[in-house]
Amino acid sequence: AQSVAQPEDQVNVAEGNPLTVKCTYSVSGNPYLFWYVQYPNRGLQFLLKYITGDNLVKGSYGFEAEFNKSQTSFHLKKPSALVSDSALYFCALGGDYGGATNKLIFGTGTLLAVQP
Amino acid sequence: SQTIHQWPATLVQPVGSPLSLECTVEGTSNPNLYWYRQAAGRGLQLLFYSVGIGQISSEVPQNLSASRPQDRQFILSSKKLLLSDSGFYLCAWSRDSEIYGYTFGSGTRLTVV
């Protein structure tokens, strides 16, 4: 069965330091992977996606993610964290399931807290 | 460009009262539409999704229902609200969601008192 996991409920990082938010997945076919960010009392905003091609994907607000097929991971990264990056981050999985499901599978979310 | 509108932004309703939340999409046709609930500011629970007018799939048995009376309109309803219906409700649309992902509305904060 397809699944996506975010092993950390919360990640704390000091402003200016690099950040990583982890995501792993399980899928029988080709994975399509997404990262979304949610600020308090707002809808989710798309950050970036991996469909095919270069394993390093660049997205909005200076974020990037690295697709690693052997480790079945798609970790979100940023070289230098800002206090304004503090938010809830969701990893999501679409994919070639051998039939159109029209649904993404979302992780449980990771709260990123950037301290000044 | 495509836009998604969701209203109201906040709602306080007494237990036992009815509910109607509306979501509309502009700038596209035949979108896939979704209702999610987010409790306690964390995980997303898919409530309903629709691939066409009058086609509703329910993911979780509950006190809520959904309808799609028009191609770009998706309505979440309840006849009698429960305290447990409180939460943050999100509407989303997609086309080929596995490839393009979702676009979310701004959400409705529902508090049942």
Overview of the molecule:
The complex is a heterodimer of chains A (116) and B (113). Chain A has 116 residues and is mainly β. Chain A contains no helices and twelve strands. In chain A, strand 8 and strand 9 form a beta hairpin. Chain A is globular and about 40 Å long. The mean pLDDT of chain A is 92. Chain B has 113 residues and is mainly beta. Helices cover 4% and strands 57% of the residues of chain B. Chain B has one helix and eleven strands; from the N terminus they run E-E-E-E-E-E-E-E-E-H-E-E. In chain B, strands 2, 4, 5, 6, 9, 10 and 11 form a seven-stranded mixed β-sheet that branches. Chain B has a four-stranded antiparallel β-sheet with strand order 1-3-8-7, with no helix packed on it. Chain B is globular. The mean pLDDT of chain B is 92. Classes of the chains: A mainly beta (116), B mainly beta (113). The interface between A and B is medium-sized, with 27 and 25 residues.
Give me the secondary-structure topology.
The complex is a heterodimer of chains A (116) and B (113).
Chain A (H helix, E strand, L loop, with lengths): L2 E3 L4 E5 L4 E3 L2 E3 L4 E8 L5 E7 L5 E3 L5 E5 L4 E6 L8 E9 L9 E2 L3 E6 L1
Parallel strand pairs in A: 2-12
Antiparallel strand pairs in A: 1-4, 3-9, 5-6, 5-10, 7-8, 8-9, 10-11, 10-12
Chain B lengths: L2 E5 L2 E4 L5 E8 L5 E7 L5 E9 L2 E4 L6 E6 L2 E6 L8 E8 L2 H4 L2 E2 L3 E5 L1
Parallel strand pairs in B: 2-11
Antiparallel strand pairs in B: 1-3, 3-8, 4-5, 4-9, 5-6, 7-8, 9-10, 9-11
